[in-house]
Amino acid sequence: MTSIVNQNELYKKLDLTVVTTFDDESKGLAESMRSTKFVLIPPTTASGRLKHDVKNAFIRRLFPPQRLSPSAFYNVALRNIRHESFDGVMFEGGPSSGITSFDNVFSGKMWYHLHYTPASDKPFFSSASRVFAVSDFAGKAWRMNCTSQQEVITVRNGIDISRFSHHIDAVERGRIRSSLGFTDDDFVVIFCGRIMREKGVLELLQAISEINDRNVKLMIVGSADFGPSNSTPYVKAVVEKVSHIGSRVAYTGYVPNNQLYRYLKSADIEVVPSVCEDAAPLVPVEAMAAGLPLIVTRSGGIEEYTSPECAVIVERDGRIVESLSQAIVSLRGDRDRCNRMSRAGLIRAQRYSIRSMYEQFVAACE
User: Fold this and answer.
1) What is the CATH number of domain 2-159+354-365?
2) How many of the other CB atoms lie within 10 Å of CB of 232?
3) Residue 38 in 3-state DSSP?
4) Regarding beta strands 269-272 and 249-253, do their DSSP bridges make them parallel or antiparallel, or are they unpaired?
5) Does 349 have pLDDT greater than 70?
6) CATH T-level assignment (fold) for domain 161-352
7) Of 44, 194, 241, 327, which cross-links 48 as Cys (Cβ 3.0–4.6 Å)?
8) Residue 65 — pLDDT band, cuts 50, 70, 90?
9) Under a CB-based contact definition with an 8 Å cutoff, are residues 314 and 325 in contact?
10) Spatial separation of the C-alpha atoms in residues 310 and 346, rounded to whole Å
């Protein structure tokens, strides 16, 4: 949404109001905007949450469960905008059932931005009149599992490509590698993302450990969440595996997004070993924008964002570890292919700019 807001400052194609929680940083950002109105909701208090829970307990006796408001935040947000005359009210993720608490005020105008892949074994209802899906795959899963019928439009995510196209020279590349225990002669694989089971980090670690070439190294960049975060049982398992493998793996922890390009540019390829149906991860797009050849699993919307010209696709099955190892070794021994994939990725990444996402978003609204 920050990207949409920034683009709207430039092109002004939307009369946009953003309802959000806030802190001092986001409040300052909101005050700097001229083409977007912000409704800043204070964090809910303990008494506010208690009132919400009591109200929901009462409503639950009178109406079906989907009529319940998911949290006190939704109640406060609705109170703040109920007298506005919007053409559409977009929910950015969150529980799809949360829309129903707004239906009486904005009937037929509720839209939902789908950032995940709905589970195939859990049919659900949504009163959204329109759904914006981040991939065709996610949109298809919605159609198959949502018991109501609504228009589903694909609006693919975008990134600030310039953030990942910064150049680093050989000296800085060597310095970063050296700080991680790698040399210029090493073939460095990078994993970048959240350290969680669904992302297949342990499978990738096992794949690296089974490669006999000691110059094949792995750099793991990320944390359990989208920023610095506490350890989890899965993170602990990853750290233990890293320790067991030894100097062939370096785990950096969380790296701010504006510094990520330095690590991407210091690697030779990136692997995205998702073991879930990833709706539309941006990591492959960031890798392409940085000029990295890719190895990805056949997962969710990943294939829509990449292509065979810039990504080796491996099956997400019982042989995933072996398949990852073989793919890494094949690129290790084929510099010409890596160069071709790098060039193809740089070209394809241009499809997923913030400007492109904004134009798709506006068209979908219209």
Assistant:
1) 3.40.50.2000
2) 15
3) strand
4) unpaired
5) yes
6) Rossmann fold (3.40.50)
7) 44
8) low
9) no
10) 9
Type of residue found at 43: P
Angle between helices 46-62 and 72-81 in degrees, nearest 10? 90
Question: Quick check: 51 pLDDT over 90?
Answer: no
User: Which residues, 6 or more positions from 334, have their beta carbon under 8 angstroms from its beta carbon?
Assistant: none
Q: Which residues pair with 311 in a beta bridge?
A: 294
Residue range 255-269, pLDDT digits in tens: 998 899 999 999 999
pLDDT (tens digit per residue) in 185-204: 999 999 999 999 999 999 99
Locate the domains of the chain by residue range: 2-159+354-365, 161-352
**Cβ–Cβ < 8 Å for 222, 191:** yes
Closest CA to 96 of 48, 62, 141: 141
Q: Got the DSSP string for 312-325?
A: EEE--STTHHHHHH
2-159+354-365 and 161-352 share one fold: yes
Average pLDDT, the chain: 92
Percent of the chain with pLDDT over 70: 97
pTM beyond 0.85, yes or no: yes
Q: What's the rounded Cα separation, in Å, for the pair 364 and 14?
A: 12
